[in-house]
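Postdoc handover notes: sequence design on the structure in folder B. Input tokens:
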């Protein structure tokens, strides 16, 4: 074990030294890649993540998450084998995208609201892209065709739902031997309606937190800024690394292997740049998918983009690893879930293409977009991103609350706390 650790340490050190040498060798390309990564962080990630990170910490401190967790428990527990507070994590993740789900799950672990296995299940299916990125940046900005957006959004979140159902079987033996930690709701007497229980849970959580609003706000802003800076640094780092790999031609073998695999599967080999780029960084892979050329059918471009969005790129993986490093939750289940998500989402694109786009949208050889929106240029607007995110957050929460209430009414005896 010690020998392997030392070998890994030496290899990482050598890789970093080579990277430094390449940065000196390609200074202009390094600078442009850094600016590109910084622009992505400032224009898209900062406005879509920071407000929701601060808001989620405030809601945790005031016990709103415990309130929603009690109401959503009848839905989340039987479906995904996670506590009801996982519904709040899923809603915020839908509104703001990765890595918010991992951040909130880590906070639930800190408050002893989830076990290790429950946290791993929760991170597995709540790590997803946000709709504003799929609609604005990918569909309009990269594909120049907003008609692609419904297929991408539907396949992405449907695949996330399927991943959640599959991951409910994760840790079955461990869960049976070790009970879930007792949340604050467990101290509430099972008398009265579930709404009254939720209010009691919120009150107890607020009393247990005990921080004044000013202190709570200060800590929420401080911790959110730390995370958002880490996210930005990782985005810039992987943007530079990917650019240097492209400049040195180090990805040639990987491109060839991907092209051979696509040819064997009777798929356009021109998608290899999108798939390989998406392995490292989401934005680069999605951009390559949109610009794969008119000879590639639009449906296959969308499928490649769905793969990239679901995999997340090594940049997102590094963000998740940095968040989970302070918890006992493991990276392995998350990696497995990303691979499954990346396989299911493109398949769903192919299945949903004709029902959503129409029978004439399936191309025989090639397809070029003739839509009037093809000339639309996407310009990120922080106000629109934040507003759209809050609309999605409210909509997803209301939808989850509705299904949770419906299940509690239809199957009151089958639900076990």
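Designed sequence:
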């Amino acid at each position: 074990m010690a020998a392997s650790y030392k070998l890994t340490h030496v290899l990482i050190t050598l890789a970093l030294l080579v990277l430094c040498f390449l940065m000196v060798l390609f200074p202009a390309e390094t600078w442009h890649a850094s600016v590109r990564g910084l622009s992505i962080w400032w224009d898209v990630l900062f406005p879509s993540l920071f407000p929701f990170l601060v808001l989620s910490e405030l809601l945790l401190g005031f016990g709103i998450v415990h309130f929603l967790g009690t109401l959503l428990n009848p839905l989340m527990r039987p479906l995904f084998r996670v506590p009801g507070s996982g519904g709040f994590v899923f809603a915020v993740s839908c509104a703001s995208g990765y890595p918010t789900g991992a951040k909130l799950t880590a906070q639930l672990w800190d408050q002893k609201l989830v076990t290790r296995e429950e946290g791993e299940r929760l991170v597995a299916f709540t790590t997803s892209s946000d709709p504003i990125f799929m609609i604005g940046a990918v569909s309009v900005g990269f594909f120049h065709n907003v008609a692609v957006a419904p297929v991408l959004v539907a396949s992405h979140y449907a695949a996330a739902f399927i991943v959640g159902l599959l991951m409910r079987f994760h840790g079955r033996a461990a869960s049976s031997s070790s009970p879930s930690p007792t949340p604050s709701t467990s101290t509430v007497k099972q008398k009265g309606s579930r709404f009254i229980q939720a209010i009691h849970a919120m009150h107890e959580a607020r009393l247990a937190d005990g921080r004044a609003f000013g202190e709570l706000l200060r800590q929420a802003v401080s911790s959110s800024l730390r995370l958002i800076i880490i996210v930005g640094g990782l985005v810039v780092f992987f943007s530079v690394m990917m650019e240097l790999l492209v400049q040195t031609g180090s990805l040639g073998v990987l491109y060839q292997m991907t092209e051979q695999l696509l040819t064997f599967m009777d798929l356009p080999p021109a998608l290899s740049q999108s798939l390989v780029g998406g392995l490292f960084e989401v934005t680069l892979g999605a951009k390559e998918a949109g610009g794969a050329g008119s000879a590639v059918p639009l449906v296959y471009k969308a499928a490649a983009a769905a793969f990239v969005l679901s995999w997340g790129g090594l940049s997102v993986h590094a963000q998740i690893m940095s968040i989970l490093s302070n918890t006992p939750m493991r990276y392995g289940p998350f990696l497995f879930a990303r691979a499954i998500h990346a396989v299911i989402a493109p398949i769903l694109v192919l299945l949903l293409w004709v029902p959503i786009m129409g029978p004439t949208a399936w191309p025989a050889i090639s397809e070029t977009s003739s839509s009037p929106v093809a000339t639309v240029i996407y310009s990120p607007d922080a106000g629109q991103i934040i507003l759209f995110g809050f609309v999605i957050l409210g909509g997803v929460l209301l939808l989850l609350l509705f299904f949770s209430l419906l299940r509690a009414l239809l199957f009151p005896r089958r639900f076990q706390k």
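Context for whoever picks this up: Residues 213-248 form the longest helix (36 residues). Don't rerun without checking with the PI first.
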